[in-house]
Amino acid sequence: MKIRGWLLDVRLVDDEAHLWVKSDKGRVMLKQKYYPDFYVVPDKVSFDHFLDLFDEHPNIVALEKTTRYTSISHREKSPVIRIAVDSPIQYRPVQRIAEKYGEIYDADLSHTQRFIADYGLIPFAEVVAEVDAHNRIKTIEQVPLELDVPPPPFKVLCFELYQEDSLYFVTYDDGMQENQVFDGEDALKDFMDYLNTYDPDLISCLESDLKTLFKLLSKQGYPSLGNYQRKSFHLSEGRVYINLLNYRRTSLAGTVERIQYTREVPRIGSEWAAGRAIESRQCYEVRRLGYLLPRRGFYQPVMSLKELLKERDHGGLIFAPSVGLHENVAALDFESMFPHLILKDNISYENIRTERKEEGFLIDFTRAVSYTHLTLPTN
């Protein structure tokens, strides 16, 4: 059976990845086995000795010698050992043992981004999957993004909860204008009836309001909307939580654009500022291209700040304005200046010193981002 729809979320349960997809028939959950992996370059023992040490480990499902690029500046692959573990729960214990014998790579990727990168998926974008009768994935492919990306057909419920003299709920429309108010003795029942009838894909509210709603539902004997764990909400039935403070700033279009860019699940990527979002996208691309990611905190700058300021960055030229009243003044603004400069001058980490003519690591996906944008529907 073939399923086509928008990838809402990826969640990990034991040794499975559950992919929630919004199709024309509603939200559906697809299943795929997930064995998290990392890479090791042994330096305390030989490669063969390392393989012998871990050959019969009960939680390792794959142990193989392979090759990868250990740096984006390397043109040839180096020998490494790949270790795949039977579940995310055993991932850190196995990693702690392995790092006693060598350098660890790809260990700081989130499990969701590791899965998304390995299958080349884009959250909040369209996928096509072939599944069996139990919705287990046989094949899954990402539908390529066009230059003009249509908005996903997601239903969004934005609300705030108030507990002053009495409990009441306020919902908001697409323009963040007050839409409906549920108050009185049956406020909770009426709001939940509305939520279940509307059946939103995305629920946007303040974190404190969702915690309060969970407590109220439990106290009144209503079915739960999900659970709260590890500082994040996991809503049931494939729904996705987006913090209302972020949603107000970006709306659905901005939220979709950020999630598609970061290549991370919405409950994580929607919270990130620009710098962390860029890092996330680079980690995704590194994984896809066969490069290895070193552990966080061990990155060494290619050029020191002092060296950069002295040799390369001479600052911008700012003209002093002519004081007075002027007519026929035109302003010229350069859209996406930094991405275009990266493309024009082949700016990438590994090219700073060498100035190689080959396209740098940053070029390919920067080009894709520069010419892709979300197109909003017109009324």
Please describe what this structure looks like.
With 379 residues, the chain is α+β, with helices and mostly antiparallel strands. Among the domains are: 156-198 and 202-238, no CATH class; 305-374, no CATH class. Helix content is 30%, strand content 28%. It contains eleven helices and 18 strands. It has helices at residues 47-54, 91-98, 111-118, 187-198, 207-220, 244-262, 266-269, 274-289, 305-311, 337-345, 363-370, and strands at 2-13, 16-23, 26-33, 37-42, 60-68, 78-85, 102-105, 126-131, 137-142, 148-149, 156-163, 167-172, 178-182, 202-205, 226-229, 232-235, 240-243, 373-374. The strands form five sheets. It has a five-stranded antiparallel β-sheet. Strands 13-12-11-14-17 form a five-stranded mixed β-sheet. A four-stranded antiparallel β-sheet has the order 5-6-4-7. β11 and β12 form a beta hairpin. α3 packs across α8 (274-289). The longest helix has 19 residues, at 244-262. It is globular.
Mean residue pLDDT: 88
Give the strand order of the largest sheet, numbering strands 1, 2, ... along the chain: 3-2-1-8-9
Total DSSP E strands: 18
Largest sheet: 5 strands, antiparallel
Helicity, in percent? 25-40%
Radius of gyration: 25 Å
What would the principal axes of the Cα set say about the shape?
globular
Strand content: 25-35%
Give the helices and strands as they follow along the chain.
EEEEHEEHEHEEEEEEHEHEEEHHHHHHE
Give start-end ranges of low-pLDDT stretches.
none
Termini gap: 36 Å
- Total of DSSP H or I helical runs spanning 4+ residues: 11
Class by alpha and beta content: alpha+beta
